[in-house]
Design goal:
With about 375 residues, the chain is mainly beta. It contains four helices and 24 strands.
């Protein structure tokens, strides 16, 4: 039997055209069924980005040198961390590192971003691992900005240092960590002390701090009066105390007061060496000028041969009363002379060139 006869029928029974139509209809039905019965592909998960502040703590300098803006770390296939800002401050001989990072991750069912399986909660510790270093830090803040909230703050510092360090501290000195300027020395005033090898420094400096919970911080501590700061350079390390925090610090804001000083049991030759007109100077500035000196013998009590008690002059010791004009500085705690608070009963030292006087304050004029 022929496959297709003269009338175009398949096996002499079915018209070929009719058969093709039937096959076409069947194919359409099968394809439609497959389309209807096949599950829709799941939509890709939604992702989001937020920014967080990481307090990494103190880190060795060689690690700090490797940390840069733009460094990235993939915690998993859906979570990426990227460093967007770096803030450095000196602390305890090392460097304190605070980072601003971008966190990219998927949204959970509540619509919140998750990073490495959990929301970026305050206090959570995040790891950062690159080809060059590995650190971790705690989340201190979460927000929309890719930059840390930093601020340049002027402060007045005081410190007692050795004479060599005092000479090295110079206006214009920059404190740099990993090629970043973190503080600058603007002005310096140096005073002598009652120890020949020690100097009292007043330093007006600018600190590059960062704000955390609305408080400016430097070296891990709040920038406030009484707080200690460390400023290291290649030539010296200045450990100082913050005396004043203000954007308007005047190193020349001093007042001159007449002060009465008293010395007891002083050898006669030493007492005779103190004269009116003697001065103590810091650079070209006179910080003390002796205007008057009164000397009288010290008194001693003796017992006579008959048992009587007598008050007589000491043969060599003298009581010395000095009147001097002192340059004082208004400090939050009160008036200070060369960094030390001055009041009745306190002790001051005057370096008068040929003689150094250490005396007790009797009165401070108004």
């Amino acid at each position: 039997m022929e496959l297709i006869d003269d009338e175009g029928r398949l096996f002499g029974r079915v018209n070929v055209i009719d058969a093709l139509v039937v096959l076409l209809i069947a194919a359409v039905v099968v394809a439609g069924a497959a389309f209807v019965l096949t599950d829709d592909p799941a939509p890709p998960p939604e992702t989001d980005t937020t920014y967080a502040t990481l307090d990494v703590g103190t880190v060795s300098p060689y690690v700090v040198d490797a940390i840069e803006e733009g460094d990235t770390y993939d915690s998993d296939s859906t979570s990426t961390l990227r460093i967007t800002d770096v803030h450095l401050t000196p602390q305890d001989g090392q460097t304190r590192v605070v980072l601003r990072v971008a966190l990219e991750g998927e949204r959970n069912e509540q619509g919140s971003l998750t990073y490495a399986g959990a929301p970026p909660r305050l206090g959570r510790t995040l790891d950062i691992t690159t080809d060059r270093y590995q650190v971790n830090g705690q989340i201190r803040d979460v927000g929309d900005s890719d930059a840390l909230a930093t601020e340049q703050q002027r402060v007045l510092l005081s410190s007692q240092v050795d004479a060599g360090t005092a000479q090295a501290v110079t206006p214009g000195d920059e404190i740099r960590l990993s090629d970043r300027t973190v503080a600058r020395i603007n002005n310096v005033t140096t005073y002598t002390t009652n120890r020949s090898t020690q100097r009292q420094l007043f330093v007006e400096a600018t600190l590059a701090g960062h704000r955390q919970q609305d408080r400016l911080r430097f070296g891990g501590s709040p920038v406030r009066r009484g707080q200690s700061v460390t400023l290291p350079t290649n030539e010296y390390t200045l450990d100082a105390r913050i005396e004043q925090v203000s954007h308007d610090i005047d190193m020349d804001a001093t007042t001159t007061r007449t002060v009465t000083l008293r010395m007891e049991e002083v050898r006669e030759d030493f007492a005779d060496a103190i004269e009116p007109g003697m001065v103590e100077q810091t650079g070209d500035t006179t910080v003390a000028r002796v205007t008057g000196v009164e000397t009288e013998p010290s008194l001693i009590i003796t017992t006579g041969e008959n048992g009587s008690v007598n008050v007589v002059d000491h043969p060599v010791n003298r009581e010395v009363t000095i009147t001097a004009d002192l340059q004082l500085r208004e400090m939050p705690s009160g008036l200070a002379f060369k960094g030390d608070q001055i009041r009745q009963g306190s002790t001051v030292a005057l370096d008068l060139g040929t003689v150094t006087v250490e005396a007790t304050v009797v009165t401070v004029g108004r």
